[in-house]
Every structure is written in C-alpha cells, then in structure tokens.
Amino acid sequence: MVTPKWTKRSLLGIQHLTGDEISYLLDISGEYRKAKTNGNFPSGCLEGKTIVNLFLEPSTRTRVAFELAAKGLQADVITIAEKSSSLTKGESLRDTARNIQALGADGIILRHSSPGAAQFLDNIVDVPVINAGDGAHEHPSQALLDLFTLREKLGSLKGKKVTILGDILFSRVARSNIWGLLKMGAKVTLAGPSTLVPKKMEELGLTVTYNLKKAVSNTDAIMLLRIQHERQTQTHFPSLTEYSKMFGLREGDSQPDSRTIILHPGPINRGVEIDSTLADSPQSVILDQVTNGVSVRMAILDACCSSTY
Amino acid sequence: MKSFLLKNGWAVNPDNDKVENKDLLIKNGRFCELSNQKSNTEILDLKESFIMPGLFDLRCHINQPGISIKESLNALSDKAVSGGYTSVLAMPALSSMADNQETIFYTKDSIISKQHINIHLTGCLTLNSKGENLAPLGSLKESGVVAVTDCPSSTQNNQIYSKAVEYASMFNMPVIELARDLSLSPGASAHEGLLSLKMGLKGYPRIAEELFVSRSILLSKYTNAKIHLTSISSGGSVELIRGAKKEGVEITCDITSNHLCYTEDLIGNYDSFAKATPPFREDEDRKALIEGLMDKTIDAISTGHQPFSIDDKVKEFDLAPSGVLGLENSFCQAFTELKMQTKEKMLLLANTMSRMPSKILGIKPETFEVGEKANIFVFNPKDKTNLSREYEKDIGGTNLPFKSSEFDGKIIHTFVNGEKKL
Fold it and tell me: What ipTM, to 2 d.p.?
C-alpha cells in the first residue's frame, strides 16, 4: 500500500505539485489499473458522494472518462454542459458554482475556456475542484495520464527524452506535460512552427527546436498535440497542408526510431499531425492513453474527494 | 467662505524650483496678502509639512453621470481629495460617449457644477471612439473640451488617426493617445512574456505599444501636431520617445504611478483586480520608466484611475474588465517608490503631477500667487498611509491593484478652490 502523500483539497494544475505528489497519484492510478485488469472492481470510496461535472466547453474523452471514473468509485455523477446551464442565461460562474455547492455537491470537475478558471472556482467554493482543462493554462488529468502511460512503457522517466510536437502556444496539455515531465526528471524538447513554439519557453529548462528531424530522432517518446486549425490557420501558419509537410509525423524522412513511442491527446487530425499508418502502428500508445485516463481520474477523485487518504 | 492661515509649511514651487518656508493666507477661495488676515481666520500649524500645488490627473475614467455602480461621483471625489488631486481630466467614455456637444453640455450641468473637485472634459477623437469616423472636434472644443482622445481605446486605422490628429491641430487641441495596436494583441489580458505563457493568457507584447508610439512620433514630426501619449508601459517606448525629443519632436507622455511601482507579478495568481490598461510589465520596463522620469523623457505621472464594481471584477481573469484605481494611491505611491532626496523629490512630483499636466493641456498651472484660487494639498512625509481594497458594493471603485499596502507620507489637508475638503 502506498503511503499517504496527498494533502491538497483540489487539483488545479501540475505546476504547483511536487514530484512526490505526482508519483503518488501515478501510484494510485496503477492500483486502479491493476484492479481493473484483475477484475477487483469496484472500490466504493466515493459512495454516497455527488460529483458535478461542470463542462463549459466541448469535450468527449475527458468528460466521459471522469464520469466513468466517478461512477466506478460509486459516486453519483451529474454532468452540466454549457448549453444546459444557467450561464447561458447570464449567470456568472461565481453564482453558478455557489449554487452547485449549495445543492450539496461534494466535488466539482470544471472544464472552462478561461485560463485560471479552476483556481477562480477554488477560491469561491469549499469543496474540491478538479481542473479538467482551463483555457490554454493546464489540463492536469491529461498530463497525469500521459505520464502514467510513459511510465508504463518506459519505466522511470528520469533522464528520458520526450519531444512535444505541435501547437504549444495554445495548448494546456503541453503546459501541464512540460511541468510534469520536468518534475519527473525527463529531458524535454519542444518542436513545431516558431509562431506556435515560443523560444522563451527555454527559460523553463527545456530545449526548443524548429527542426523536425532533430526533434524526432533519438528520443524516447513523442507527444503530438492537436493542431487547433479552427483558430490558427492564416495567422500562425499558412495551411494544414504546409503544416503537415513541415511538421507532420510521417513514414520516411521524419519517421521516428522504431523504439520511440508516440502519444496524442486526441482528437487526431489524421494526415495533419500524423499519418494514419503511424497512428495505428505498434509504436502508437494513443488508445492506451485513453484507457489509462479512467484509472488516472479515479486516482485523482480518490485523492481529492474521498476521505480515504 | 472660511479663511485659513497655513503656518510653518514648506511651499513646493515647481515654477522656480524652490521649496520655501512660507505662510499662506486663503481668503474667499484665493491666496491673499498676509496683511489681510482677519480675526476669524482658522490657523493651521503645518509643523514642517509640505504645501503642494493641487495635483492634476491626465487620465481619469469617471463613467458619469449615471453609472455610479462602478464608482459614485462622491466616492471618486473623496478619493481624489484624499490623494491630493484638485483637478482631473475625464476620459470621454462617460455614461454616454462624449462625441457630441449635447453630452458635453449635459455632463457639465449634471456633474461638474456639483462636485468637490475640478473636472475637465475630453471629447472623443472618433465617433463613439470606434475609430471609423472623425468626431466633430471643432464643436467639441467650442463646448469646452480641453483635449480629444479615444482612451482607453486607440484608433487603429492609420488614415483616420492621422487625419484626426491633423484636424485637431487646427484647433490647437492636444490629442491624447493610449498607444496600442490591437491587431498585435487580440484578446490580450496580460503582458506577453514568460508569465503569460505559463498562465496560458493571451499576451499584449511590447511591440503592440511601441509600434503605435512610433506612429504618433512620426505624425507629430511631420505635422507638428500636439500628441500626448498617456500611460506608456514598455521600456522600448521610453527609448523611442527619448530619441524623438532629442530630435526636437514636440511629443509628451505620461506613465501611471501604478506602472512606476508594479510588475506583472501582481497578476501571478490570476488576480483580476490587478489587470490594468496597459498591463503591468516586467521589472526592466519599470526601471526604464523610472529612468525616463528622471531624465525628463517622461513629462507627467497620471493615475489611470478606472473604477469597477466588485461584480465587474470578480470574474474569470480573461473575462474581467481591465483597469485599476489610482486617485487615492498615486501620490504616496510615487513618493514611496522614488529614491531621492525629499525636497528634490517633492519638486519632481509637483512638476510631473501638477504643473506639467496643466501645461500639456494648455491650462494655467496651480500656483501660490496672490489672487489665484487656492488649489493645494498638505503632505507630511513622516507619517504613513495605509490603503486596502474595500469591497463596498454601493459606492463601487473596489479595484486597487494591490490587496493592501503601506506608503510613506500622508496627505493631511486638501483645498479645492479655497475650500477645505480634507
């Protein structure tokens, strides 16, 4: 049994976690993953508790994974999506959150388009807040499941080389992963077009390169990010075709070593960030990420919302 | 009207660069020969405190008449008086936009005549400050505005801006510009740098300001128009203006006292109350602003006072409005921040916060001369001032950029047009 190392009420991001806290969450995730494989389910640590999924931005994977995780822990789950909430009637997030708390929620999982929204909510309510993505700021549960998957495939992350490729500027997944990887001792390289990968990021203790070949060779893992083409075509890069040509992961020239594993948080733009053959190859751990996502979110809910630890 | 004799104070006179031990008699609202003292005069022993010319704020957002939820006019006046301000320049976003004579007349009738402090009005540079059509600048001048501006917005279209500047110069009317290229800072809510990257906030890069500072410098150079750049925030802007002044370009600029003191660190915790226009930048910018103030590249210090209610500000950071308070804190803040000999500092502050703002607008600066209206305040450098955010809903104006702070010195009396308001 792992020793209790978790004292936080909420999970707002990876930036303010210690390496020990991250390892701790990954360790419990491992236990949930094992329990699932062995059929030892369910654990009822959230029995009688109500978890509110407040999703104010579109999401499939994260929302469903959190729902499954909470249900797996026997919590009652209520999902509120943007269009069905009172926010469309002009209610402020502050009032919505206070009302949800007043209705008796034991924890709130928030997805929101504003950076810092989870912290804002955490200042307002007394119950745990779990950040399921706040603007371009953080997406801690995604980073934890990425770290979990990396650890599962590569063992300890200390000294491992990981390249994050794509739209770093607008990506919360990138930010959370950068913090997590650095805290776990990995060597991080960021790559992509210069307009989406600020050189300034090097001040965090990582490498920035605009050379795809250099970025994908001799690395243990490549984390691809989704190109949010609805936002950046025309202003940050010329076209998807150009992107795919310059920074897409393809067989041939820009093909990574066969030992390098490939991650993607989804949804994938096939043929843009990565060719289908690579996405579906044995190197790709994209579906493992999705499966691990449930165990990791169980661990997060357990740590923050149960009274076990 | 009550008469006052101010005894044993040090009068700070930026006109002749002197700080003199001087008694002042105020009678019927004006300074008067000491020999005219009557028995009913109230005597104030100032005990070595400084007597300063009343401060003049070049950038104050008053949202009046009508939108008192952001800050009531009484609350604003009280803050001004407690901060040593006897005059403010109201930006044109009043309860309706000051792009027509009727709004100016109405505003004069409804607020200016009734208030504690002197409020001067600006008009819009373009209709509704939208940057699309010129506002009737001549008519606005006739109705009494002293400058034109689209602050806190900025006319983006270069043709309209240059024509507006040229047209305004025909009336010898200063144009005030808050330089910001919006196309380089869409949706920005913080200074663009490592912190905004970490926080996932859209950044407002220095170049967005510097490009428009350059635009104004070039326009001023080619047309001799009077352009005043308000609230510059980037070190590069100081550099550009320094170069322009060396070349003899007649451009002036100010910084806000908050930008003199603070950096982006204030928003590190997504504190929307510290979200300012322009944003607080890095320490290297702040140091460049101080340097610019010292070598007179920067002509004036303004407050950038932009009040909001608690409900306005308690929002997700990127959705909260931008703007911080300044009237109450500006003087003591600048006094605390600048490290120099006290008398020199008082002269510098009297010059940059009272005399120069008036001169930039072509208004006669406050003096202690016999016959002039007494607009002054008394400052005790040895006392302290404590300010903290107050969450009083009914009077608005809760958005100090800091939670609480202690400053050196205290303003102990303020006279507006000879009336003792503090």
Answer: 0.92
Interval A116-149: pLDDT, tens:
999 999 999 999 999 999 999 999 999 999 999 9
How close B193 comes to chain A (CA, Å)?
A: 8
Count of positions (residues) in chain B: 422
Contact A114 B318 (CB under 8 A): yes
Residue type, A235: T
What SS3 string covers A48-72?
A: CCEEEEEECCCCCHHHHHHHHHHHH
Asked if residue B188 has pLDDT above 80, the reply is yes
Instruction: Looking at the complex, report in whole angstroms how far the Cα of residue A277 sits from the nearest Cα belonging to chain B.
Output: 33
Gap between the Cα atoms of B231 and B59, Å rounded: 8
* Structure token pair of residue A166: 């794509």
* Phi-psi domain of A288 (left: phi exceeds 0; alpha: psi -120 through 50; beta: other): alpha
Residue A167 within a domain = yes
Question: Please, what sign has the CA dihedral across residues B181, B185, B190, B194?
Answer: negative
What DSSP letter does each residue of B70-128 carry, written as one string? TB-HHHHHHHHHHTTEEEEEE-SBSSSBS-SHHHHHHHHHHTGGG-SSEEEEEEESBGG
B317 neighbourhood in chain A, CB within 8 Å? 114-116, 120
Same domain? For A277 and A301 the reply is: no
Tokens of A123: 């200042």
Structure tokens at B161: 């801006």
Non-local CB neighbours of A212 within 8 Å, separated by 6+ positions: A165, A191, A246, A247, A254
Q: What pLDDT, in 10s, does the model give residues B156-177?
A: 999 999 999 999 999 999 999 9
Q: Cα–chain-centroid distance for residue B329?
A: 11
Hey, what amino acid is at B308? F
Q: Is the dihedral of CA B316, B322, B328, B334 positive or negative?
A: positive
Give CA–CA dist A183/A18, Å, rounded.
7
Summarize pLDDT for A210-251 with one digit per residue, the tens: 999 999 999 999 999 988 766 666 688 888 889 999 999 988
Q: How far apart are CA A233 and CA A20, in angstroms?
A: 40
In a domain, A117, yes or no: yes
Q: Strand, coil or helix: what is B259?
A: helix
Q: Can you give the C-alpha Rg of chain B in angstroms?
A: 21
Integer Cα distance of A52 and A106 in angstroms: 8
Count of structural domains, chain B = 1
CB atoms within 10 A of CB A231: 11
Nearest CA in chain B to A202: B194
**Domain of residue A134, residue span:** 19-139+292-305
Whether A153 is covered by a domain: the verdict is yes
The residues with which A107 forms a beta bridge, in sequence order, are: A51
CA-based nearest residue in chain A for residue B312: A92
Query: Domain limits at B126?
Result: 54-366+400-407
